[in-house]
Sequence to fold (195 residues):
Amino acid sequence: MLDIPITIYSLVGPVINTAELITEKIIAQTKKCSVSCRPSQYRANPLTGKITWIVSFLEPVCPFCIFNTSNLAKAIHKNPAIARHNPDCQSYCNPAKCTKYAKCLYCSSKTDQYIRPSGENCTEAAQCANCHGPHPAKHENCPAAPKRKGRKLIKLTKKKLNAVRRYRDKQFRDAQKPTTDTASLTRDIQPRLQA
Fold:
């Protein structure tokens, strides 16, 4: 990332537009070809007459300066997105290193010996693979999901995660219990069926 003036003055001749020379100057400074070189989405600052350029390389390069007027180039580090490992384990993990069993998106049962339909067509009760609550794994407000604070990704500690899972397990079991009306109706019908 560089803040480069839009134009520079030549000792002899007209004003030079820096956009025409930027890639050539970057190669001269770094001794490497860039993969991408483009101005940022924001316009030039009218007060300073500078615009930010985004330059991408396949490998790290030393900080460099263009036209002896720009700031030193800084690396841009993108924060990885917080993503659930779908369609496999449904956990918030590194998909490249994951060794967990694949689970159903809806009921979070292991799918290695799955006979019934899975995913959106699953006929079982919804249960989250992360917090064990009564909702599918794709639920956006899962309390077990890691949160981002600044540049850091903060995951729940094992103790807190177990507490969340115990509480949400209870919610899941409570959601599966038949209502009192259904239970009383079953009690009334059973003696009649036996007679």
